[in-house]
Design goal:
With about 525 residues, the protein is of the alpha/beta class. It is globular. Helix 16 links the parallel strand 7 and strand 8. The strands form 4 sheets. The chain has a 6-stranded mixed beta sheet with strand order 13-12-9-16-14-15, sandwiched between helices. The protein has a 4-stranded antiparallel beta sheet with strand order 2-3-1-4, with helices on both faces. The chain has 20 helices and 16 strands. The N and C termini lie far apart (about 50 Å). The longest helix is centred in the first third of the chain and has 22 residues.
Length: about 525
C-alpha cells in the first residue's frame, strides 16, 4: 500500500507544489514529500517483508533518511508514529490501523516546536479522528472523509492560504498518500496527472525569502534537544528530529554556511541541502507562465544529473540539469532516475551519474526509458561538471554525446574525505599507504592516492603530484568547512599555482572536506 501510495503521490506531485505558500513560498512540497516516500520504498524493497518489525523499521528509517523540506520532515515523523504501532503486530487489522493513524498524529505534533494549525498537522489530526471502521477499507474511507473536511477548512486557519485562495499543500499531499493506500486496496489504476494552470506563489513577493537548509548527521555528540537549541537562533521553520542514531534538521535561514559548519562540529555530516528560495520562487513563476501556454514547448535535449552538496547542485541546475539527490554512500535507485527523466520535457534526456556506483543504475534507467534517455558515463562530480558545461537544450542529445563525453574526460577530479576503516593499500604508483579509520584520504578520479595530514595539506599534496598546467583550479568546500577555511586554502593555492585561475565555492559534496577540479 505504501509503495502504491508513493506512485499515487507522484501523479499529483506538481499539483501539490503549485499549492504551496506556507511558511514562506518554497514551493516544492509535493516533490519533497514524494522524495521522502521514495526513500521509504527503497528501504521496503530491501527489508524482510515476512517480519512486521522489519517493515516498520523500513518505514521509519527510510522516511527519516529521505526526508526533504519542512513537509518531508513532518511526514517522516507521521510515518515514524505509524510504524511504532505496527512494529509489534503480526498483521494490520482495522483497530491497529486506527491506532497507527492516531500515533502518527501525536508524533507529528510532538516533533514541531510551535505547531501551526492549517497545515499538514491539522490534516493528520483529521485523518486520525476519522480513522474508524469495521475493516481496513472503512477505516481509510472515513480517514479520508474527515481529513478532507479539515483540509477544506485550512484557508480559514491560515491567512496566507486564504490570501492565495488555496488549501494547504502538505495536508493535500498527506491525503494523497492515504488515498493511494485505499486505491491499492481496491485495485484502482493510477489516474492521469492533472493539468497545472496556476501557482499559489504568484500571490507573493520574494524579498523575505532565505535559504531552506537541511542536514542529516550521524554519531551526534549532543542530544537532539541541544542541537535544536544550537540551530534555533539561525532562523525559523525549525525541525530537528532523530531516530536510529541519526539527526535530521531543517531550517530557513540567511546563514546556511555558518549553520552547517556549527552543527558539523557535533557529529558526522552525511547529507546537506541548501536551496535559495528566492531563486526557486523565480523558477516557479516561470513555470506558472508556461502553464498558461496552450502547448508545452519540448526541447530536443534535457539533462539529469546525480549530485549532492548545495553548491554543486546549484551549479548543475544553472546549467539546465534536473537533479537526482545522491552520490557516495547514498546511491539513488533506478526508479529515482527514471522519475527524474520522466519529469523533464525533452525529446531525449542525457543522464550524468557522476559516480561509478551510480553508473549501473543510470544505464538500467536508460533501458527502461525505451530510447528516450542516453547515459554519459561520468564517474566523478568533476567529470559531470565538465560534461554539463557543454550541454545545450537546443541540440539533439545524440549530437551532444561525443562533445560532452570528451569534456568529461578532460577534467581531473581530486577529492578529500575521511577513511571509513583501517587498512593498508598499495596505490598505482607503488606506494603503500597505511590508513587508520578517520584519517584524511585523497582520491584522484576516484582512485586513492594520498593519506594522512589535514584536509588542506591533502589538497596541496595531490596537486603537487597531479597538476599538469591546467588553467583553472576550482575548489568546493564541504559542509563542515567554513568560508574562512576556503579563503585560507585559496591563498595557499594562489601562491603555489600563480599561473592558474583559482575559483572557490561553498556547498561541496556531503562526506567530503574538499572537491577540486582541474581543467
Amino acid at each position: 500500500m505504501l509503495r502504491y501510495a508513493t506512485d499515487w503521490l507522484g501523479v499529483y506531485r506538481e499539483q501539490v507544489n503549485a499549492l504551496n505558500v506556507y511558511p514562506v513560498p518554497d514551493g516544492d512540497t509535493g516533490t519533497n514529500m514524494h522524495l521522502t516516500m521514495q526513500s521509504v520504498r527503497r528501504e521496503l524493497d530491501t527489508c524482510d517483508e515476512s517480519s512486521m518489525a522489519q517493515v516498520a523499521r523500513a518505514i521509519s528509517y527510510g522516511a527519516l533518511l529521505g526526508a526533504r523540506g519542512n513537509s518531508g520532515v513532518i511526514l517522516s515523523q507521521l510515518l515514524k508514529g505509524f510504524a511504532e504501532v505496527i512494529k509489534d503486530q503480526r498483521a494490520v487489522d482495522a483497530p491497529t490501523l486506527t491506532r497507527a493513524f492516531q500515533a502518527a498524529q501525536r508524533v507529528g505534533y510532538g516533533a514541531v516546536m510551535k505547531p501551526v494549525e492549517g497545515t499538514i498537522l491539522t490534516v493528520a489530526r483529521g485523518v486520525a479522528e476519522g480513522a474508524q471502521g469495521e475493516n481496513i477499507e472503512a477505516v481509510l474511507e472515513q480517514a479520508l472523509f474527515r481529513g478532507q473536511e479539515l483540509l477544506d477548512q485550512t484557508p480559514e486557519m491560515l491567512p496566507a492560504l486564504k490570501q492565495a485562495g488555496v488549501i494547504d499543500s502538505g495536508g493535500q499531499g498527506y491525503l494523497y498518500i492515504v488515498q493511494g493506500m485505499l486505491a491499492q486496496l481496491r485495485g484502482e489504476a493510477l489516474p492521469p496527472a492533472p493539468e497545472i494552470t496556476s501557482y499559489a506563489q504568484e500571490q507573493f513577493e520574494n524579498e523575505e525569502f532565505g535559504f531552506c537548509t537541511e542536514f542529516l548527521m550521524s554519531e551526534a555528540t549532543k542530544p537532539i534537544e541541544e542541537i535544536r537549541e544550537l540551530v534555533s537562533p539561525y532562523g525559523d521553520s525549525l525541525l530537528v528530529v532523530g531516530a536510529e542514531g541519526y539527526v535530521k534538521g531543517h531550517i530557513h535561514t540567511n546563514e546556511p554556511d555558518q549553520l552547517l559548519a556549527t552543527v558539523g562540529r557535533y557529529g558526522k555530516m552525511l547529507k546537506t541541502k541548501v536551496e535559495d528560495m528566492s531563486e526557486q520562487h523565480t523558477e516557479i513563476l516561470g513555470m506558472a507562465g508556461s502553464a498558461a501556454r496552450a502547448e508545452e514547448e519540448i526541447s530536443p535535449s534535457g539533462l539529469v544529473a546525480v549530485a549532492s552538496g548545495y553548491g554543486l547542485v546549484k551549479l548543475f541546475r544553472s546549467l539546465g540539469a534536473r537533479i537526482v539527490s545522491g552520490g557516495q554512500t547514498a546511491n539513488p535507485s533506478v526508479q529515482d532516475i527514471v522519475d527524474a527523466v520522466r519529469s523533464v520535457s525533452a525529446e531525449k534526456v542525457i543522464i550524468l551519474p557522476n559516480n561509478k556506483n551510480v553508473l549501473m543504475a543510470a544505464e538500467k534507467a536508460m533501458e527502461l526509458m525505451d530510447g528516450r534517455a542516453v547515459v554519459i558515463p561520468t564517474r566523478t562530480l568533476g567529470q559531470g561538471m565538465g560534461a554539463a558545461l557543454n550541454f545545450s537544450p537546443d541540440t539533439p542529445a545524440e549530437d551532444l554525446k561525443e562533445a560532452m563525453t570528451e569534456a568529461a574526460g578532460a577534467v581531473t577530479t581530486l577529492e578529500v574525505t575521511r577513511a571509513s576503516r583501517t587498512t593498508s593499500i598499495t596505490v598505482q604508483d607503488g606506494r603503500t599507504l597505511a590508513i587508520a579509520e578517520g584519517d584524511v584520504i585523497g582520491l584522484k578520479d576516484d582512485e586513492l592516492v594520498q593519506s594522512g595530514g589535514n584536509p588542506e595539506d591533502s589538497v596541496l599534496e595531490m596537486l603537487g603530484r597531479h597538476y599538469d598546467g591546467q588553467e583553472i583550479i576550482t575548489v568546493f568546500g564541504g559542509p563542515q568547512k567554513t568560508q574562512e577555511d576556503l579563503d585560507t586554502l585559496a591563498a595557499r593555492l594562489g601562491e603555489a599555482y600563480s599561473d592558474a585561475e583559482i575559483e572557490t565555492h561553498m556547498g561541496g559534496p556531503d562526506l567530503y572536506d574538499y572537491l577540486v577540479t582541474l581543467e
